[in-house]
Each structure stands twice: as C-alpha cells, then as structure tokens.
Design brief:
This protein is mainly α and about 180 residues long. It is built from 8 helices and no strands. Helix 3 crosses helix 4. It is globular, with a radius of gyration of 18 Å.
Length: about 180
Amino acid sequence: MRPEHFETFLEWLDSDRARAAEKYEMIRQSLIQIFIWKKCFDAESLADETLDRVMLNVPGLRDTYKGNPSAYIHSVAKKLLAEQMSVRSVQLETPVPENPMKADIKTEKMSDCLDRCLANLSPYSRDLILDYYSEDHSKKVSHRKDLAEKLGMSVGQLRVRMYRIRKTLEACIQACMGPESSV
C-alpha cells in the first residue's frame, strides 16, 4: 500500500487530521476486538488486512459511498472473517500427516527459509521487524508505541511498514519452501 492511500483514507474518515487519526485507531481497535471475539489467531493482522483492503478502495468510494465509513469498514471485516472461516474449515478437514518426522522436516525447512529471508532484508528492515515482534503479548502494545515514537512516526504508520516487511518475508519464504507448500 502506498502512503497516498493512507492519506486518502484518513481524509475520508474526517477532514480534520487529528480526528481522522483518532477514528482510525478506534476503528482498528474495534476490528481487533471483533476478530478476538471470533477466536481468530492473529486479530491484529486481520484488522490491518481489513484496513488495507478498504484503503485501496477509498479513491472510488469517496464519491459514491454515502454513510458512515465505519459501517463500510466493518462490512469488509465481515467478508474477511468469512474468508478466514472458510480457510479454517479447509484446514480442519486436512488430515494430519501420518509421519510426524515429515512435519518436523517442514518446520525445520521453514525455519531455515525464514533465516535466509531475514538475511535478504536490509539491516534496517531486519532489525525493525525483529524488534517489533520481540515483546510478549502483555508488553507488545507499549513496546510498539515506544518504537513508533523512537522512529518519529505514528503507530499506524509503523503497522503499515511492518505489513510491507511481513509481505516481503512471506513471499520469500513461500518461494524458498517451494510450490507444494504455502505460508
């Protein structure tokens, strides 16, 4: 996602930049809470994915959509949740491998791929993503706020940057693992 998408999105939420930022954070927190209630594994990532999808559509929506942007955003979250439920049902139907050693080999290969892909990142990006995910659940919110402040950006901008780095890593790991497996 490009920065101009984020800017356009904020303008769509509210013409006042400060109020738009507040609305963004409130919407994001409500999305996270919804995904937690629905027992989704990574509620933050799903909230970010929802917002990314909406941000890409805002240029076309601004002139045609009438109503509260929050309602539209929550409808996109509902569709993403349906996609996740579909993926979960497919995963539940997938049989457990008969040979546990095969699963261990796959885990080891994925770990090797992660190491290789992290090494391919710029030192800045590698250090940033490792720092971003370094804290456990109880400390991660305050740690990420501190990290954003240290970098001179908002928490939302930091999340966008992490999303981009994660996507790069996921693509690299998937290529490394080969076509027979997906991340």
